[in-house]
Amino acid sequence: MSDMPHARAALVTASDSGIGKATAVALAAAGYDVGVTWHRDEAGAHDTAAQVRGHGRRAEVRQLDLAQPESAAAVVDDLVIALGGVDVFVNNAGRGTTGAFLDQSLDDWRAELDVNLTGAFVCGQAAARAMVAAGRGGRIVNVTSVHEHVPKRGSSAYCASKGGLGLLTKVMALELAEHGITVNAVAPGEIATPMTGNADVDPHTVARPGIPAGRPGDAAEIAAVIVYLTSPHAGYTTGASFVVDGGLLLMAAERNDT
Asked: pTM for this one?
């Protein structure tokens, strides 16, 4: 990324709560103006924006519905204009439903892939095009899941979408490197957020004996990895997936030993 002086800007999708909110605030603390998006929780998005402004940075708030991917790119374009550019794009928006493979409806399958994969593609492409046009390079981080790497019963659409996003990350990294843009994935395990039913819970007080760390993760722990990947220290890191799961994936080895 260029050292030319300019107001650094980051866009974080679904930054009205959970990992997205923690990431937006952490990026503001790191010196970025932030584009905040929300799907249903407008009040949460404005609270995020207030926290961003509390760090002395600008915040712009827009509604973004990735179930309508045809219009999603226009929202990214609008935020880029409002912020005067984009240096960091964090694709955090996603949804997760459960249901047996044999019972999976085509409508639910399509809805899951529209949000988790097609929406990520559309928004990432819009952000990357803006970065290329500006000629300053950039950082893109896709928030996937441990289920980018390992299957889960009853989550065929979710796993397929996150696995697809993981490989899309690698293709993006390969093609965008010549433009000075790095692209990486962060793959969280169970994190104490509204999506996992643990909103406003101190994860250190929740027992998870099936996880080596013994607890769920904190959204701030994911945000810290994302912020690192946007920093100059990560300039040689691209096409990688950073699993942050308290050791959950290691349990496969434990089960194989029994």
From this structure: 0.92
